[in-house]
Design goal:
Elements (H helix, E strand, L loop, with lengths): L5 H18 L18 H16 L8 H37 L6 H10 L1 H9 L9 H22 L5 H13 L17 H19 L8 H24 L1 H8 L16 H16 L6 H5 L6 H7 L1 H22 L7 H23 L13 H6 L9
Length: 391
């Protein structure tokens, strides 16, 4: 079997660790995670990479029968839903134990209150029908929806690599401008990750992947590279300096997740977030020899990060369940430790190390290294190694 794209897998591996760190509620390590360095975060990167991977794996989609494409991706949706069920059942079990031991308290008090007020069978029913988020299962619900619409986007990309973008842009603008986002059936809170606004990021990934397949050259003018780099650095200046010196900037930062056009909402996938993830993707592809970026392109297939990225679905599932347990354990430990920062930091670091160890066991042992095959010209332009498979 051809070698997978190790760059994509390595980035996925980094994102999986970062997601687990940020899912530990009230943890100290998340304060210095990469998600604090920009408008977008690991969720945006994951959805973009999913679109790229599917387009690469489904190359020559225009020459394949549409029913075959639909059957493959809908089977993928069913598999993702199966892992969604694992997260839902395990999380509800943990919440039931927390409710029995502590009552409606701890860092997941809102979820335990739902369990207390609506009962286990009712909450389970709403979660299984994807109407209510339980724990950290929302991203898998999004992926199920994306896999269902992926055949249409792939077919469009097979015709013209850019064709998925116009309909995705229309959906994105309508959803953001008119706040067309569904709410949780029991809590009433808007879904954090929903299909209409997030289709654009997925479609952008498919466009990039199909562009690689079609041999579309990546534009590399210095001005575009400078704009992308300046945008990423500009956020750091805003977050570290400007918000401390300018009260209006601090007010904007505090409410940035509430607005679409001039905010940075994750719910509505604001323009600032889309531009941020595109700037990251462009620099990774356009500057494969730059410091730090070079390391991503040189990661071998048996590297721990690559192994995690290859098994992203079971690893994410383990992290989603583990983060609930780790958050509650950290909250409980703070009581006898009198919230002393050093012991809690060491405990949190131990939990992260434990997750990485378990995740590597899930990912399996490293296999024998295979000789690298020369990448086709369009892949060398983008700086991505190997040939793809759907992950």
């Amino acid at each position: 079997m051809p070698q997978r794209r190790t760059t994509i897998d390595a980035i996925r591996g980094l994102c999986l660790i970062n997601i687990f760190v940020n899912h530990i509620q009230d943890g100290a390590v998340s304060a210095v995670s990469p998600s604090r360095l920009g408008f977008s975060d690991s969720a945006d990167i994951f959805v973009l990479l999913s679109g790229i991977s599917i387009a690469l794996a489904g190359s020559q989609a225009s020459r394949r029968r549409l029913p075959d494409i639909v059957a493959h991706l809908w089977r993928r949706a069913a598999r993702i839903y199966a892992f969604e069920l694992v997260i839902v059942f395990a999380t509800l079990g943990l919440l039931a134990a927390i409710l029995a031991l502590r009552g409606v308290t701890g860092v997941h008090a809102q979820d335990t209150a739902l369990l207390r007020d609506h009962g286990f069978p009712n909450l389970l029913s709403h979660a299984l029908t994807l109407r209510q988020t339980v724990g950290y299962s929302s991203v898998l619900r999004l992926y199920v929806a994306l896999m269902l619409i992926a055949p249409i986007l792939l077919r469009l990309a097979g015709w013209r690599f850019w064709a998925p973008l116009p309909p995705a842009l229309l959906l994105w603008i309508a959803a953001g401008h008119f706040h067309l986002v569904l709410s949780n059936s029991l809590s009433g809170a808007p879904f954090a990750l929903t299909i209409l606004p997030w289709t654009l990021i997925f479609a952008l990934g498919i466009t990039i992947g199909q562009g690689l397949v079609d041999g579309v050259a990546l534009p590399r003018p210095r001005g575009l590279t400078g704009l992308a780099l300046g945008y990423l650095v500009g956020y750091l200046v805003l977050a570290v300096v400007v918000v401390r010196l300018w009260p209006a900037a601090a007010d904007w930062a505090a409410t940035r997740n509430d607005a679409f056009w001039l905010g940075a909402s994750k719910t509505y996938q604001s323009p600032l977030r889309v531009l941020h993830v595109l700037a990251l993707a462009y620099l990774v592809m356009a500057l494969p020899r730059a410091p730090l970026i070079r390391l991503l392109h040189q990661v071998p297939r048996n590297h721990p990060l690559t192994r995690l990225g290859r098994r992203s679905l079971p690893v994410f599932t383990a992290g989603a369940i583990g983060a609930v347990l780790a958050s509650e354990a950290l909250d409980l430990a703070a009581i006898p430790l009198n919230a002393a920062w050093l012991p809690l930091l060491l405990l949190e670091a131990g939990m992260i190390a434990l997750f990485v160890g378990i995740a590597l066991r899930i990912a399996g042992r490293p296999g024998r290294a295979r000789p690298a095959h020369p990448a086709p010209p369009e892949v060398r332009v983008a700086g991505l190694r190997g040939t793809p498979a759907i992950a």
